[in-house]
Design a protein that fits this description.
By secondary structure, the chain is of the alpha/beta class. Helix content is 41%, strand content 15%. The chain contains 42 helices and 35 strands. The strands form 8 sheets. Strands 28-29-30-31-32-34 form a 6-stranded parallel beta sheet. It has a 5-stranded parallel beta sheet with strand order 2-1-3-4-5, with helices on both faces. One of its GO terms (molecular function) is ADP binding. This is TIR domain-containing protein. It comes from Ceratopteris richardii. Residues 4-167, 183-353 form the TIR domain.
């Protein structure tokens, strides 16, 4: 049995502890992506002792819940003994966190002599372990007074901090919950505080906040639950969309609770709202009681009001009894605290709340927006009712980027006026599937035709079927909403013709699209444009005081970072806020910098006569802020004091991601910003203004703009910022990163892949639905699929006229007249060939900006130490204002304060300052041996590969993976980025993943090092790599290089040199990649093909084998290296994989291997580790 690796092991005793505290703590950890072992989640049939011991051995953090009866269990005592033994072993850092659960520390000196099946040796071992645990920093949990969520959250935070600091888990910047300052609520939780507030209500409140759902809990955290139904409670009930009522045994002892139920049930019975869907959802939770108890209120039972409310009037008791009776008739959930696992049951409640509160955005932000939408919706209905000649189908077209929200509101507002309602999303994606149009119509009919009229699902494939549907719907007036129509007008027209042949009686069909030309071609009866109502760019307000001397460089860094991400940033000091607090009302997020003289209370006091901004994130500035009450969920403790400490870059990134995630509710693509965008924000804003001005003067044709400059000057970074700022003004957008690298070495296949990505992104259809035979055919397909779309296109690093022919020409001839194409290049001739409207020459940084950028990277401060200022100035001058050089050299020098070291670096810089490769190489030369090899492997084989897979490969080659990546990333030699697409075996799939990136100058430097050192006879120890046809031919024809070959990438359709037939062994080969171009056949028989060579060659050191469309049915014996960790054979003829001969295998990919007959995954050897990813078949 293979034991899974866990982040956390929870040691506990007792059913009550397990169902409540442990259930919730485990759920909170898992929701943060932290794997957690608890015994009740073990698979049935497993050996319990082996599973527990294995989990302890594999865990990094141990939470020991010391409860009153903990020591009654020898299992628990053995566990704690093993935990403390494991903790003290050298190697992997581990942490033990004790939780004193309803016990005092002094009470944990359990009488171990009373433990059954004990002896002196065990008692001593258990006692020593307990004594050691009690010496650690602990948490105290008193179930009679502690709020469960808040205490559990503190524990989770401590676990997360430890795992992040030891790089066990990534810092995902997911703070929970997010505090939202608002006067309206999504959920009202009615409860009797003595029964439920500290446990289930506390946890439910926290879970909802983590989902960005705002609950109102009266008297939360107070001992007194209150007795009156005050104005705050009434307002919260009226404004909430969901009412959750915990009917606990003592609920009826509270008059306030009873009055809340009356008020809630009166809203349900009120005739004031014609649209029932607008009324709040009521969710009764019967906590330790049956619904019948509340329904019948019998004498002698808990809800007998004559007894529970003796002092109340008969009229009051009658009102309460009626409300409770009607409430008990609603379908709810039963919660038995003696048997229910708390997290799992409350998660069911959260799902119900989520489904009922679809729109989580605070109402005080959306209310004006909603009102404008309602006005448009009412116009549609009015025109539908007043049309002179009644049509069977009235067609309304909705144009905009946020049509889904409008469509939802339309259904809510108009749905009650129709007999049948159907709303379908992602229409174009569904239409492209086999029989897509028929399936859409079938789904529509299943929604519109009541089951009582037809027991069979109707698919109108014949004229008789159509007539039958017409008969079933002839007296029905229907509302059909089709969202996201896409750009294929022929499919849209076919779908609408089918609908018109079925629907009757003045039905309303609403079609929504991002593409204006599609709706215009449909000749809709009513056209609605949402473009004027939609926000173009989001505002971010940064509020602060000038009294505490907040560093200007920090404020500038804040402002530039968010500006590069496409936000409109406003710096508002205290004086501005006091003079006009309404200046915050149009911002969705406010970032408030709390400092010594500027507290949260002082900030809030400015909103006496103005609405509080919908979302506020607090940042604590300085090492000793006076505001100790800062809310943790929405605050970031940043001790920004450059005299005492350096800038905390990871924490700053965490805060930036929090803001961006909050603003980016539509999940739009945002190109990531660089760590220190010194001087770039103003540059990008100037270029943005020039582009938009040109477009406004001429909206009749596609316009092309160019950014030109030497490598490493910042062209791509500027293009990303411009993209972030203006992409929302276009119907669709596409950013083609590293075009040269995407195409280089792939021939026609590279051009086709980029064409497919464009079509997939711009037309919102799947890659599998796009067939391209060659680059010329791709131009025709691209032109037809994006016709008339007003799009923003960025093509980064274009250096070949073929790129313009394959991409620019079809785009310029087919895109809508308001489209913009931006090209970055080192070659100005490229921009001339593209007929650019305007060319922007990107220059080097001036002296002041060069200083600022270098200082941030070298010192994490805006200024250098006095003793390094002079040599810093010389280093900056040697970098000649080139951002890439300043960043790489600064990162290389970071953390080293030895002046002699700096001066040596300066000499190296001055020696090779004429060539950027020599400048960049300084950082490479200071890596240790394995780090250099890892860097060169990435240069040749791993750019654009997934981070997790890269870690696995590097670990297989060098024993360490993540540490090497972190070192290279910290030195800015590599980057990571999130890709929306997965390029796999020549196909493009939509799938977000974190991937490895590298600046092309660094990639070229690495490959240059390999070429030069291979030719240098004095360095014949270099283990060579070949990454394309040219380098492969060089090495394969050089017999002396065979024995040192360590990495090889070849194509199945390109024949290899005849000399390679003499290979018998490649002892140092660790990486072998055989690519397959499905548009070309493999090399002819008689020519030397990869399968001919590797059929008999021994590759005993092989770690990573990727062979696309491998022709063999069995893995050649020479490739069956026992060292293989990663084996990928997608779309191959393989019929059997000898997993028993591959003891170190961690990642197996057999996608689309349709001839696979057998895969032995049973009884692996003890050395066989669990797969880190599910293998693909």
């Amino acid at each position: 049995m293979m034991t899974q690796e866990y982040d956390v092991f929870i040691c506990h005793r007792g059913k009550e502890t397990k169902r409540n505290f442990v259930s919730v703590l485990g759920g909170m950890l898992r929701s943060k992506g932290i794997t957690c072992f608890v015994d009740y989640r073990m698979d049935t049939g497993n050996d319990v002792r082996l599973e527990i011991n294995g989990a302890i051995e594999k865990s990094k953090v141990f939470i020991v819940v010391l409860s009153p009866d903990f020591a009654r269990s020898t299992w628990c005592l053995d566990e704690i003994g093993e935990i403390m033994r494991i903790r003290d072993l050298p190697g992997t850092p581990r942490k033990v966190i004790p939780v004193f659960y309803d016990v005092q520390k002094k009470d944990t000196l359990y009488d171990l002599t009373q433990v059954k099946r004990s002896n002196a040796e065990k008692i001593n071992r258990w006692g020593k372990a307990l004594e050691d645990v009690c010496k650690l920093d602990e948490f105290v949990y008193d179930s009679s007074s502690t709020l469960q969520w808040e205490k559990s959250q503190e524990i989770v935070a401590k676990v997360e901090d430890f795992l992040i600091s030891h790089r066990t888990i990534p810092d995902q910047n997911t703070k929970m919950p997010i505090r939202r300052e608002c006067i309206n609520y999504d959920v009202f939780i009615c409860h009797w505080h003595l029964d439920t507030q500290r446990n289930v209500v506390s946890v439910l409140r926290g879970m909802l906040l983590c989902k960005s759902i705002t609950p109102f809990v009266g008297g939360y955290g107070k001992d007194d639950g209150g007795s009156a139904l005050d104005s705050d409670i009434i307002q919260a009930i009226e404004n909430s969309r969901v009412h959750v009522i915990f009917l606990s045994p003592n609920f009826v002892c509270s008059k306030r609770c009873l009055e809340e139920v009356v008020y809630i049930m009166n809203i349900q019975g009120s005739p004031g709202t014609s649209d029932a869907s607008r009324k709040p959802t009521v969710v009764p939770v019967f906590y330790d009681m049956k619904p019948s108890t509340a329904r019948y209120q019998k004498e002698g039972k808990a809800y007998y009001l004559e007894e529970a409310q003796k002092s109340s009037t008969a009229d009051d008791r009658e009102r309460w009894a009626s409300a409770l009776h009607h409430l008990s008739l609603l379908h709810g959930l039963e919660y038995d605290s003696c048997s229910t696992f708390q997290w799992e049951k409350l998660y069911d409640v959260v799902k119900i709340v989520e489904a009922s509160a679809k729109k989580i955005t605070p109402r005080n932000y959306w209310s004006n927006h909603e009102a404008l939408y309602v006005k448009k919706i009412d116009e549609v209905f009015k025109e539908l009712e007043l049309q002179e000649k009644r049509e069977h189908v009235f067609l309304a077209g909705v144009y905009g980027r946020e049509t889904s929200e409008f469509s939802d509101l339309l259904v809510q507002r108009l749905g009650s006026n129709f007999c049948g309602v159907c709303k379908l999303n992602n229409i174009m994606e569904k239409a492209w599937q086999p029989n897509g149009i028929s399936k859409i119509v079938q789904q529509m009919l299943s929604d519109l035709i009541h089951p009582s009229k037809s027991s069979d699902l109707i698919q109108p494939s014949t004229s008789n079927d159509v007539k039958r549907c017409q008969l079933l719907l002839e007296n029905e007036r229907c509302l059909v909403v089709l969202d996201d129509l896409g750009n294929d007008i022929d499919k849209i027209k076919t779908l609408l013709e089918d609908l018109k042949s079925i629907l009757r009686n003045n039905s309303l069909v609403v079609v929504a699209s991002q593409f204006q030309h599609s709706l215009q071609e449909l000749n809709v009866h009513k056209f609605i444009s949402l473009s004027s109502l939609e926000s173009k760019r989001d505002f971010l307000n940064i509020c602060y005081t000038e009294r505490d001397g907040i560093n200007k460089a920090f404020l500038s860094h804040l402002s530039e970072t968010f500006d590069m991400l496409g936000l409109d940033v406003r710096l508002l000091n205290e004086d501005k806020l006091k003079s006009d607090s309404t200046c915050l009302q149009d911002a969705k997020v406010t970032l408030c910098i709390i400092s010594k003289s500027f507290s949260i209370d002082e900030f809030k006091s400015m909103f006496t006569n103005a609405a509080i901004p919908p979302k506020i994130i607090y940042v604590s500035y300085g090492s000793n802020p006076t505001d100790v009450s800062m809310p943790k969920p929405s605050s970031f403790k940043m001790e920004v004091d450059f005299e005492k400490a350096e800038f905390n870059k990871p924490q700053f990134k965490s805060m930036v991601n929090e803001v961006v995630q909050t603003l980016n509710e539509r999940g739009e693509e945002i190109m990531g910003a660089v760590d220190f965008p010194v001087g770039l924000a103003q540059r990008s804003s100037d270029i943005e203004c020039s582009i938009l001005e040109c477009v406004s003067r001429n909206e009749n044709s596609v316009q092309c703009f160019g950014l030109v400059g030497m490598g490493g000057i910042g062209k791509t970074t500027l293009a990303r910022s411009i993209f972030n700022k203006i992409h929302s003004q276009f119907e669709r957008s596409f950013f083609g990163l590293n075009t040269r690298a995407e195409v280089q070495g792939k021939g026609t296949l590279g051009l086709i892949d980029v064409q497919k990505k464009m079509i997939t992104k711009l037309s919102n259809i799947r890659s599998d639905d796009v067939r391209i035979d060659n680059a010329e055919h791709g131009k025709m397909v691209l032109s037809s699929k994006v016709k008339h779309i007003n799009a923003l296109i960025v093509l980064d690093d274009v250096d070949d006229g073929r790129h313009l022919e394959a991409f620019c020409e079809p785009l310029q001839s087919s895109l809508g007249p308001k489209s913009v194409i931006i090209i970055t290049t080192r070659d100005q001739k490229i921009l001339g060939s593209a007929k650019s409207t305007m060319i922007f020459d990107i220059e080097r940084l001036d002296e002041e900006r060069s200083k600022s950028l270098f200082y941030w990277h070298a010192f994490m401060k805006p200024k250098p130490p006095a003793d390094l200022e002079k040599v810093s100035q010389s280093v900056i001058e040697a970098c000649q204002g080139l951002p890439l050089s300043l960043k790489i050299i600064g990162s290389d020098l970071y953390g080293n304060s030895d002046r002699e070291y700096w001066e040596d670096s300066l000499k190296l810089l001055q020696k090779g300052k004429k060539d950027i490769v020599d400048v960049l190489r300084i950082s490479f030369d200071r890596l240790d041996t394995d780090e250099k090899e890892a860097f060169l492997d990435i240069c040749c084989f791993l750019i654009n590969e997934e981070v997790e897979l890269t870690c696995m490969i590097l670990k297989a080659c060098y024993g360490v993976g993540k540490a090497h990546l972190n070192t290279l990333k910290n030195k800015c030699l590599i980057t990571t980025y999130v890709s929306e697409y997965d390029e796999y075996c020549g196909r493009i799939y939509r799938r977000k993943s974190s991937r490895i990136g590298m600046h092309d100058q660094l990639r070229d430097m690495g490959r240059h090092i390999i070429r030069e050192e291979r030719r240098d006879q004095q360095r014949d120890q270099r283990r060579d790599r070949a990454w394309d046809e040219e380098t492969a031919n060089e090495i394969l024809q050089e017999r002396n290089a065979w024995s040192s070959l360590r990495g090889l990438l070849v194509w199945s359709h390109i024949p290899l040199p005849e000399d390679a037939s003499d290979w018998t062994s490649l002892p140092l080969l660790r990486i072998l990649v055989v690519k397959h171009d499905r548009h070309k056949t493999d090399a002819e028989r008689g020519r030397l093909r990869p399968q001919d060579i590797f059929r008999n060659v021994r590759c005993g050191g092989l770690r990573w084998l990727r062979w696309e469309a491998a022709p063999f049915e069995e893995l050649p014996q020479g490739l069956c290296s026992t060292n293989i960790r990663v084996l990928e054979l997608p779309r191959s003829n393989i019929s059997e994989v000898p997993t028993a001969s591959l003891p170190n295998l961690e990642h197996l990919d057999l996608s689309a291997c349709y001839k696979l007959k057998r895969l032995d995954m049973t009884n692996p050897s003890p050395l066989f580790p669990p797969f880190r990813q599910p293998f693909r078949v």
